[in-house]
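Troubleshooting log. The previous structure file for this entry was overwritten by mistake, so regenerating from the original sequence record. Sequence copied from the archived sheet and checked twice against the printout by T.R.
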Amino acid sequence: MEPALQNGSEINLGIAKALARIHAFSQEQVDLVIDSTKSRLLKKHEVILAKGQICNFIMIVISGSLRLFHSADEKEHTLNFFSEHDFAADHESFVSQKPSMNSIEALEDSVISIINIHQLHALISRNQVFFAIGRVMENWTKSTELTAQFATPQVRFEKLMQLHPEWILRFSQIHLASYLGMAPETFSRMKRKSLFS
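Regenerated output below.
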């Protein structure tokens, strides 16, 4: 069954909610962002950014979820997940305007709203408050933050449960294990232990 694009008011509400998470924008400023975006559907597993492409846009996830990942030696390493009201892009490629080393795919049928780099620059030239949209990406890193910060798999798993417990039910064990830098078997064992302890 084909995913359906939501009506305009639902999309506009989703954009407003995403903006409210990063700054107290006025309604006029929210409307300017809405007018600068284009919405589209992504089917499950559809790639919106492929390795080697330049990321010249930022997405707002209205519904569904996306995954940022890096492929090397025939393996995929998940770097980040994005779900409803998150902003998504490849930060390094967007800032440098050089080909991306990473890819972004839809994990579910998803609706996204896209603002391209020229529209973002136009907004910022109009009002510097829109720098907040660019700054939302500053916390995204090439390497998985949880892998870099916490030495043992157990501590990384516990931190994930603390920060994003809903991910355990929503995303596949393979992708979550990759995100935490551990084998799927290790992740599965920790998940069982967590659920039954």
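The CA atoms of residues 59 and 77 lie 21 Å apart. Archived copy saved in two places this time.
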